[in-house]
Fold this protein.
Amino acid sequence: MNEVCFGTQGAQSRTLGASRADATESDGKHAGRVDVERDSSGGMWNRERIVSEAVAQILGTVKYIVPETILILAVCVSFLAGPFLVSERGEAPAGLRHKWGWLALIAITLSGLAWWNQSAEPMNYPNGPFQLDSLALFVRGLSLASAAILVLIGWNQIDDAHAAEFHACLLLISAGVTLTAAANDIIALFLALELVSIPTYVLLYLPRRDAAAQEATTKYFLLSVFSSAILLYGMSFLFGVTGTTNLTAIQAAITTGAGGAMPAVLLLAIVAVVAGLCFRLTAVPFHFYAPDVFQGAPTTGAAMLAFVPKIAGFVALLRLIAFPVDVSRNSNWSLVGMALPLLTVVAIASMLVGNLVALLQTNVKRLLAWSSISHAGYMLVGIVAGPTTTGSVNGTDALLFYLVAYGAMTIGVFAALAALGRGGRSYETLDDLAGLSQSHPAIALLMTVFLFSLTGLPPTAGFLGKLNLFLAAWSGSSVSKTLAIVLAVNAGIAAWYYLKVVATMYLHPLRRPSEGKVEMPALVGLALCAAATLGFFALPNLLWTIIRGS
Amino acid sequence: MSEPIDQLTAWLIPLAPLASAVIIALFGKLFGEGSHRLTVTGLLIAFFCAARVLVMKETSDGTGVVLRGPEWMSVGALQIFADIRIDTMTAIMLCMVTFVSTLVAIYASGYMHGQPGYPRFFAALSLFVFSMCMLVLSNNFLMLFVFWEAVGLCSYLLIGFWFSKPSAAAAAKKAFVVNRIGDFGFMMGIFLLLMTFGTLDYDSVFKMAGDVAEQHPQTITIICLLLFVGAMGKSAQAPLHVWLPDAMEGPTPVSALIHAATMVTAGVYMVARCTPLFVHAPTAQLVVAGVGAVTALLAAFMGMTQYDLKRVLAYSTVSQLGLMFLGLGSAVVSHDLATAAVTASMFHLFTHAFFKALLFLGAGSVMHAMGDVIDMRRFSGLRRLMPKTHITFLCGSLALAGFPLLSGFWSKDEVLAAVMAGTHEGTHQGYFKLLAAAGLITSLLTAFYTFRAYFMTFWGEERIPEEAGHHAHESPASMTTPLMILAIPALLIGGLLGPTGFFGNFLGHTVGLGHEGEHHLHWDVMAISAGVALAGIFGAWLFYVQSPGLAKAGRTALAPLYHLSLNQLYLDQLFTWIIVKPLWVLGWIGLMIERFVIDALLDFIAWVPNLVGKALRPLQNGLVQSYALVMALGLAAILAAMMLR
């Protein structure tokens, strides 16, 4: 997070402020500001200068988004070439899905190589649309890794005719998540978030076009659009208060008190932004879609939905609300200070509602939806604990660590379900899983690892994640101490329903006999998730190095 | 003379068996009845490396070496490295462990043939060898303790190998629980050690021992006594010896390797390793000698009347371990004789490993042929049926009985000499007179019960139990070959290394042990012990071959003593009544509290979340309009709350 601090302070020292602020910026090198008001007096010459400066900024930040560009090129190939390989009656040559799957994996690998060669940079273009700090790099790695695993899980879930669009959507979503992290402008941020949402609608419907999937997709579509509208509404107020769309400038304006004149409007902006983002986090009371959609959607879609929007949501929340405030210059008008009570209530409600209702579920996908709601609550604790706690680990770092652990264990469970359910009805109820240890001992064991991790038992990353969140919250204020206690109590409640699944797999008689071989690609995805779940317990420093960007 | 010890050779000793254990554990099903090949390969590599280490620079010139391993943990000021330490004592132990275990593994491939869980057996066996090697290679008390527990775990797994047999499961549990009692003392000893010295490294502890002893003589004594409690558990010293005879429920190769030759000697090894501590705690040494003598005598007494061949050998093991502790304790006599006493015990440990493993494997061979019958009353006269087993068993028996010029004779002689030195030197001459008498009587009884078992099994008329069927036969070559190989060191190794002073000079390089100086042959002690051994053997011959009626007459004449011995002094019953039953009642009270107080409370606590969950459920009605409505209401409510705050 140091880079974020750096950028913020740099911005503050320049007092970029709002558009109504002094406009005589003359810092030669990258002074430009796309400021429409100025050209009323400026005329043609000024307009040209502004346009050329804007172009320079955009070109200057393009190199920040090379990995996304690679992904999107692959997407273009898939969308353009895909239809030509399928006949008019929708028949495709057998095995076509493998080719598209490999293309997606190659694109992700190339993108990953580009990611590997990037390193965090101080913000050379504070007014440009993109930035590249350790958070952006971390999210990019996480997003690419999860995209690769999702491609593997979905490999055989999709038929040959729709594989091109399916994998292209996954890549688009991945690109959207990383752009969210790289965004330095609320317009870019919003577009990036929509780049996650829109392919999701397609993804939920493509693999299995039956009534349940249709209902799930429709629900998700309507509610997602609704939440995007709320988010956009909030952003418009943010722009209205600060007069700029640039994140660096917005942060600077608010910390220096430029918005102090209109606290009520700012408050409205914050509530709307948080509400809009909470939909993606599946936080209470914006969680209602999750159980219905997870249950109705195909397994890959549900796996994606359980994790990827959460990355985007938390990163957007960090960028918009919880940016680190320079303590020495702290003003009363920090966004995070205003949002804290709201986030605290949402965190507690999410943990409690998620876990309590999960106790009653018998459908594993539905159970995971409620589990996902409660985990949103756990991770919000990290945001409330904040980036400046005094303990061994700060809230933001703990949140990012937990995000990785959560991704590995949740996608892991879905991957197990996907690996089992070849053809026919997918495995999703507790009855389907009864006695799984007899028919598929290896998968049952891996499932147990993931469920232990979700419960927060060693030796898994989930244990370390919960421990870090708890420690971070415990070292904070009395409010965050309360949150730490709620977290601990909830982890106890949650153990019941996770371990119930384990008990069903190991202690109940076999109900559903094995249906042939398990899915190989999904099995690879499963193994990767298990490696991450166990590996980050054994070697947490690998992850800390990336998170702390050092 | 030769190249220095390198990391690869040293680490291969524990890691080769570990690798085979892991591979068998993971892919055992693939190997099936071929699993033993992996184990034997791993053990051969380990043995080869151990033998190489024995002649490499640091061991042959006696300096010893500590190879720095990765940092294992760092807690406050305490830093623990996974170092391995190789000096002469380690090298000797490693060679003995890997040699015996290789032969036992080969033997087991024949013995365990056709058993379900064949790969599991060999995985556990390899894991045991790994743990034992690491125990010996440890360079600090914490690692010693970890692998001390690890060998205990392997022992548990192997005693309970036939876990579906209730007696085997119970024996495994008993071994584990009794060992925990010893481990408790051991742990307290290590804690006190850490508090007193601030470090757990052997070298630092031993270096500081003298200074600390001057300041806190009591502390050192308590530490040594606590450590010895641990040794009592692992090495089956009275009254914690009760687990070892029961441990014979495990497969016989396990009894041979773990419960005779290697693991049970860990206690002796530990006390010998800690000699630099014990020399500063004379009281503790006197206790060690006393416990050793009592155990040696009692176990020999109990071994006299057992009918289970393996139990006879088990009591004999307990008794011999007692002798080793007696020798270790005799280091108290005088500073000059301390080294001789410790060397004598280690030497006895070393020779004992070979002939006791041989005897157990021989007993296993008999058991194999007799259809798993091991009660000596049900068979006899097997010498013609099983010639190879007979001859090798005889070699082992002669060595154990201390027949002149065989291995057991030399090592036992040195232990007795160390004890007898106490009768005319030092400050505790009266005490040592008792100890020496106990040692001599033990020798007599040992010779007697060993040959009682031998004569009952191999002499007399040929009888075979019906379980053996009609195909009672000599065991396969995979079993008899290890017997024949083991017979050689059982007969000769004592004579080769003992009287020549080779063993003593080699071991004398170990930290804390001085040079033994001129090696003496104790002609007087040798004469006495030779006489005692021959008398014992003759007695057994008289009672069980020449005139079997005498044995029956003896039984009736000494009925109370006979029953006391047969029922193992009623120790098991005593423990049941004074320890197990009261604890059982306590457990029952706990169970009732659990059931009627805690469970009820928990049920109530568990019922509340369910109720709340049910209350929240109707909101989730599946209608998208209502979801949107609730979202909007939620937004409005939050906004109102924030504005009005």
In short: Residues 1-8+60-333 of chain A form one domain. The interface with chain B takes residues 218-219, 222-223, 226-227, 230, 264, 267-268, 271-272, 275, 279, 284-286, 288-289, 291-292, 341-342, 345, 352-353, 355-360, 493, 496 of chain A (CB under 8 Å).
